[in-house]
């Protein structure tokens, strides 16, 4: 192998290694959502029932606060208000 080929190979391997490590780190460091689409399907609740944004995330509605205070379980009053 020529000196240039070895250098290109080393840079390519280093870059590939960095990409793989970054991917592993992002997967292991990201938290999972406590409420999911599966939760919505099982309960019939939409994201907007717990969140002020209809698409979910962000500030919670009063119902969402009750859900959170109840250990992420549906409170006795599940009317969404």
What does this structure look like?
It is a single chain. The chain is mainly alpha-helical and 81 residues long. It folds into 2 domains: 1-31; 34-81, no CATH class. The chain has 4 helices and no strands. It is rod-shaped and about 75 Å long.
Distance between the termini: 71 Å
Proportion of residues in extended strands: under 5%
Percent of residues in helices comes to 55-70%
Summed up, the domain count is: 2
Enumerate how many helices there are, as a single number: 4
Radius of gyration: 23 Å
Shape: rod-shaped
Query: SSE string, helix = H, strand = E?
Result: HHHH
Mean pLDDT: 77
* Main beta-sheet annotation: none
**Would you report the number of β strands?**
0
What ranges have pLDDT less than 50 throughout 5 or more consecutive residues? none
Find the structural class using helix and strand composition.
Answer: mainly alpha
Descriptive keywords:
81 residues; 2 domains; mainly alpha; single chain
What order do the helices and strands come in, and which of them pair?
Elements: H1 3-29, H2 37-43, H3 47-50, H4 62-69
In short:
The protein is mostly helical and 81 residues long. It has helices spanning 3-29, 37-43, 47-50, 62-69.
């Amino acid at each position: 192998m020529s000196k240039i080929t070895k250098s290109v190979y080393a840079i390519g391997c280093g870059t590939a290694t960095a990409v793989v490590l970054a991917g592993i780190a992002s997967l292991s460091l990201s938290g999972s959502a406590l409420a999911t689409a599966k939760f919505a399907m099982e309960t019939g609740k939409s994201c907007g029932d717990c969140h002020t944004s209809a698409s979910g995330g962000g500030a919670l509605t009063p119902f969402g606060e009750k859900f959170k205070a109840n250990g992420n379980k549906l409170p006795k009053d599940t009317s969404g208000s």
